[in-house]
Design brief:
Number of strands: 0
Radius of gyration: 23 Å
Shape: elongated
CATH architecture of one domain: Orthogonal Bundle
Number of helices: 9
Helix content: 40-55%
CATH superfamily of one domain: Di-heme elbow motif domain
Strand content: under 5%
CATH class of one domain: Mainly Alpha
Structural class: mainly alpha
Length: 179
């Protein structure tokens, strides 16, 4: 069906705009490959070099069998979970592309209640024990700080680092370190 009341110039403009939009989306998907970030893989979380200390401390810690999203995303409903994940992901992308990564990764204030609620969700039995001995008067982190990511983090102190830095030019050319 042709729309006779729409001028040929307007139709051409609409078709060209749709082509540019589709092309832009395709380029975005090819260049940035955002689809893996929609999953729950800890390896994806640890793929950014500034996350190396957090990833490695998690991998060697007591929570190594719990994926990042179990602690760091809300679980009341899927809409809030993915909205929070999208907001955090866009913020992480902004920080990465503006080169404003912090030296030490810390939990943002808006994330603290989410992580606390997830601790309580998984450790309800421990909460019952705490309440039996006087109630919950402090935060979980007051006694269990660093339980998931122990030690001082940061780019300059990375115990058990697995993301090795790129080779120097001398190393890649001659197969040995520069003397």
């Amino acid at each position: 069906m042709r729309l006779r009341f729409v001028s040929p110039v307007a139709r051409l403009f609409v078709m060209a705009s749709l082509g540019v939009l589709c092309g832009s989306v395709l380029v975005f998907l090819v260049v940035f490959n955002p689809l893996p970030y929609l999953g729950n893989s800890p390896e994806m979380c640890g793929s950014c070099h500034v996350m190396t200390p957090e990833y490695d401390s998690w991998r060697h810690g007591v929570h190594k069998d719990v994926v990042c999203s179990e602690c760091h995303l809300p679980h009341e409903n899927p809409a809030r979970k993915y909205a929070f994940k999208a907001r955090d992901g866009l913020w992480d992308a902004w920080v990465y592309f503006t080169r404003s990564e912090p030296q030490v990764i810390t939990l943002e204030q808006r994330s603290e209640p989410i992580v606390r609620d997830n601790c309580l969700r998984c450790h309800e039995d421990a909460l019952a024990y705490v309440e039996a001995f006087g109630g919950l008067t402090r935060e979980c982190f007051d006694c269990h700080e660093g339980i998931a990511h122990p030690g001082p983090g940061g780019l300059t102190s990375t115990p058990y680092a697995t993301n090795t830095p790129p080779q120097s030019l001398t190393e890649s050319l001659f197969g040995r370190r520069k003397p």
